[in-house]
Design a protein that fits this description.
It is a single chain. The chain has 439 residues and is an all-alpha fold. It contains 20 helices and no strands. Helices cover 79% and strands 0% of the residues. It has two domains: 196 residues, Growth Hormone, Chain: A, CATH 1.20.1250; 222 residues, MFS general substrate transporter like domains (Growth Hormone, Chain: A, Up-down Bundle), CATH 1.20.1250. It is found in: Cell inner membrane. This is MFS transporter. Pfam families: MFS_3.
Length: 439
């Protein structure tokens, strides 16, 4: 194997699994459409209302269903055929995009209806996310799961950069209706990619229905130290150090409010993330996601603190690129731990919890940054956030030896020779509980 092939993202999953290859192509095209719709909704709501309150409601319409539906959807997915659940999610999301396209062409629908369609589509996404969370561990060998996650991540990041640009062109030439229609058509590729999947019922005991199944999933999360530590590290990185809400203020304090500098801040994070994922071959082949995640999350906090200290625009952009790269590696490592250390029968619920953490953490972090900056300054909020993140990550790593030694699909250090799924806290229902029933 050449040095270049070892450094670049590991493409073995594309060769070893035609099913994964087709699934990746379908999801990549659909992700492009998803970012187009995100931009189009924001544009339409602002163009209709010119209200920052309504614009802020777009984020709520996307986030609240994911949080409210996610855990219950994960429990249902852990009782059902995950392939069928994902196909249902895809069809439902596509139908919402069609309805958005219809209202876009007519132009006579109240903004509240647009947000309601966005919320329904997000609810279908809350079903699809935990269903898709089981695909890679079932389709790929254990030593290729991290590589499959990296391929998902790098294609998703590429679409995050491309989608808004394409949306801008389509909006300028043909309007909001066509943008929504393009998104609806991209779901056809997602359906095609998932239709060839084999049946994927849960392996092991199915989830109990309703709240009981959710509580079983939460019991696993609190009892499995490596998985719990991975999510805590992610929360520490986002809640304590998320910088996006501080960029306008820091740009005003340090760089004279130049809009060109402000735009480059977010671009630097994205460029660093794409570059790190594209060069993730050594990380995914190392098969030590626990130590890698701890180091990457620490670098994220340190880089943001240094960004707060710098007065040079170029040095600041360099620190943000480093932070973006570290964040991508940390997210990749966290997902590897979750997907290789969680029993298949619980993976839907744990993936749903991971998605909620990924959604809520950045929003809370941006709120924290804004509040601290209001009391002090943007610079202080950045520096203190980065240092608190570094301290919290160090604390989690110090108190969680299972995370420091976590291998992809390996054994828990506290119970040598015993699989991670077996050494977790028990999640089987008590003997007096009623048996689980099909949905």
């Amino acid at each position: 194997m050449s040095l270049l092939s070892r450094v670049l993202v590991d493409v073995r999953p594309l060769r070893s699994s035609p099913v994964f290859r087709r699934l990746l192509i379908g999801r990549t095209v659909s992700t492009l459409g998803g970012f187009m719709t995100m931009v189009t909704v924001m544009y339409q709501v602002w163009d209709t209302t010119h209200s920052s309150v309504w614009s802020g409601a777009v984020g709520l319409a996307q986030a609240l269903p994911l949080i409210g539906v996610g855990l219950f959807a994960g429990a249902w997915v852990d009782r059902a055929d995950r392939r069928r659940a994902y196909l249902l999610s895809t069809v439902g999301s596509a139908a919402c995009s069609v309805l958005l396209a219809v209202q876009g062409f007519t132009g006579q629908v109240p903004v509240a209806v647009v947000l309601a369609l966005v919320a329904v589509q997000s609810s279908f996404g809350a079903i699809g996310a935990p269903a898709a969370g089981v695909f890679l561990p079932r389709l790929l060998p254990k030593d290729q799961v991290a590589a499959g996650l990296a391929l998902n991540q790098v294609t998703g990041q590429a679409m995050m950069l491309l989608g808004p640009a394409v949306a801008g062109v389509v909006l300028g030439w043909w309007g909001v209706g066509v943008c929504y229609l393009v998104d609806a058509l991209t779901f056809g590729m997602a359906f095609y990619g998932a239709y060839g999947l084999p049946a994927l019922p849960p392996e092991g005991e199915k989830s109990r229905p309703g709240v009981h199944g959710v509580l079983d999933g939460l019991r696993f999360l609190t009892g499995h130290r490596a998985v719990r530590g991975a999510l805590l590290v992610d929360l520490a990185a986002t809640v304590l150090a998320m910088p996006a809400s501080l960029f306008p203020l820091v740009n005003e304090e340090r760089f004279g409010g130049d809009p060109r500098t402000l735009g480059l801040f977010l671009s630097a994070l994205a460029v660093g993330g794409v570059a790190a994922t594209a060069l993730s071959g050594p990380v995914t082949r190392l098969a030590r996601p626990g130590p890698v995640m701890l180091c990457s999350a620490g670098v994220w906090g340190a880089a943001l603190a240094l960004f707060g200290l710098t007065t040079s625009a170029w040095a600041g952009l360099g620190m943000l690129a480093v932070a973006g790269a570290a964040d991508s590696v940390a997210v990749l490592s966290r997902a590897t731990i979750v997907q290789t250390r969680t029993p298949d029968s619980l993976l839907g619920r744990v993936t749903a919890a991971e998605a909620i953490v990924g959604q809520a953490g950045p929003n809370l972090g941006n709120l924290r940054g804004g509040v601290v900056a209001g009391w002090t300054s943007g610079t202080t909020a950045l520096i203190t956030g980065g240092l608190m993140c570094l301290a919290a990550v160090t604390a989690v790593g110090t108190t969680t030896p299972e995370l420091r030694g976590a291998r992809a699909g390996g054994t828990d250090p506290q119970t040598p020779g015993r699989p991670a799924a077996e050494s977790a806290a028990p999640v089987t229902p008590p003997a007096t509980a009623p048996p689980a029933t099909a949905p």
